[in-house]
Design brief:
40% helix, Protein-Tyrosine Phosphatase, Chain A, alpha/beta, 17 strands, 423 residues
Length: 423
């Protein structure tokens, strides 16, 4: 089997959609000896900030000398971003070999696994084979019935910012959504919560941690001081640690201190090599594509992946703080099954004009539909392609303006390809 064939098989499982439940992942992992039970995990759930928090924790563990697995979603440019060890994507030949081994098992199951279940099992097998010291494991959707929740009690369970998303699956209230996220909290462990939670969400986190006999840790924002912040990053001091953060925005600072709190907790629970210096150095080298990523200075072009209200509010806050007075042209593409109306209503005031695109994904909202929605809030026009949208936006922004690409992560690779011929 070639790598391209392995990837094609994985993507073919998309047809089974999202099917919350532990039966399929349990069956799949059992055949391979439940190898995940031999690994140590830091498990992360939440609505926003999972990826950045996971990556910071991973970088700090790696900086401490631990062989560190990282499982994240979605990917931005390469599918293999989802499965990493020490910052390196799983090699194509190793992913192909594992997929080839798993296919007969998957096809013998009474009910076929979903793509996410299959890739979760593949990742766990890879981390076991490579003898990882610790794995930073990000949930895909929710927590309680997410395939990553097959693991036993982790070194720590982390709940990042909780807001409304995937209501059709997780529930229509913050309490219901938080309850699903808190499904990763297991008996006799440690839970770390993002410091600025909605009251309703935090009450569920507090109650669940107590029921599961977990020590609940919440970063103390009174110990945080920001020395400097601009569009390139932040210098801050928290609990005696002074760190440089390349990820932009106040919410990223809160994600960072959530990571710091988690790292100090797991230092006492089996990872003693995590020093303060390793934490500072790990945070300093954390970079993530498409999170308020400045990809060009002239013209200024920023890419910010995200699709829910929390992401939109963060983007609006950053543009209002750092880009006020500039001419800002937006490029936006979203999925039809997301709360796109709410997202657009929050970000539209940022822009002089939004150019909408159809993302290369079967779930995409059409550029025409998205433009009609955006037109309620600001000037908008649909583009025939992402390439044309990028050309048009750069032209409209001019040398002194800003282009902000926002919305689905699924369009980022096409945007980056289009930019190669323009900047």
């Amino acid at each position: 089997m070639k790598y391209e064939e392995a990837l094609e098989y994985i993507h073919s499982l998309e047809k089974f959609g999202i099917k919350p439940g532990m039966e399929r992942i349990t069956s799949l992992c059992r055949v391979f000896g439940d190898v995940h039970n031999s690994l140590r995990f830091i498990h992360i759930a939440g609505t926003n900030g999972k990826g950045s928090t996971s990556t910071m924790i991973s970088e700090c563990c790696r900086e401490s000398g631990y062989k560190t697995g990282l499982f994240i979603s979605p990917y931005v440019l390469d599918f293999r971003e989802r499965i990493q060890i020490n910052g390196e994507m799983i090699p194509k030949d190793k992913l192909t070999r594992i997929v080839e081994k798993m296919i007969p098992v998957a096809e013998e199951m009474d009910e076929s696994p979903t793509e996410f279940e299959f890739i979760t099992a593949a990742a766990l097998l890879y981390y076991y084979e490579e003898k990882c010291d610790v794995v930073v494991l990000e949930t895909g959707l929710g927590g309680r019935l997410d395939s990553t929740n097959i693991i036993k009690a982790p070194l720590a369970s982390v709940i990042t910012s909780v807001s409304f998303d995937h209501m059709g699956v997780l529930g229509n209230t913050l309490s219901e959504i938080s309850g699903e996220k808190c499904g990763i909290i297991k008996e006799n462990s440690v839970t770390v919560s993002y410091p600025i939670q909605h009251r309703e969400a935090f009450e569920v986190i507090r109650k669940t941690a107590k029921e599961k006999n977990n020590l609940l840790l919440v970063p103390d924002v009174s110990k945080l001081s920001v020395e400097y912040m601009d569009i390139t990053g932040t210098v801050a001091v928290y609990d005696g640690l002074r760190f440089r953060l390349k990820l932009v925005g106040e919410h990223m600072v809160y994600n960072a201190i959530t990571a710091v709190t988690t790292l100090k907790a797991v230092r006492e629970r089996g990872l003693p090599n995590i020093t303060d210096k390793a934490i500072v150095d790990g945070i300093a080298r954390t970079v993530m594509p498409a999170r308020m990523q400045l990809v060009c200075d002239s013209p200024m072009i920023i890419i910010d992946g995200g699709h829910n209200v929390g992401c939109a509010e963060a983007l609006f806050g950053l543009t209002d703080k750092f880009l006020k007075g500039k001419r800002i042209i937006g490029i936006c593409g979203l999925m039809a099954d997301k709360e796109y109306e709410n997202y657009v209503s929050k970000i539209a005031p940022c822009f002089e004009k939004i150019i909408t695109v159809t993302v290369n994904n079967p779930r995409s909202l059409s550029a025409a539909q998205l433009s009609e929605c955006a037109g309620k809030y600001c000037d908008s026009e649909p583009a025939v392609s992402i390439k044309d949208a990028v050309k048009r936006a750069v032209s409209l922004a001019g040398d002194d303006g800003v282009v902000v690409v926002c919305g689905s992560f699924y369009m980022v690779s096409d945007v980056c390809e289009a930019l190669k011929n323009i900047i």
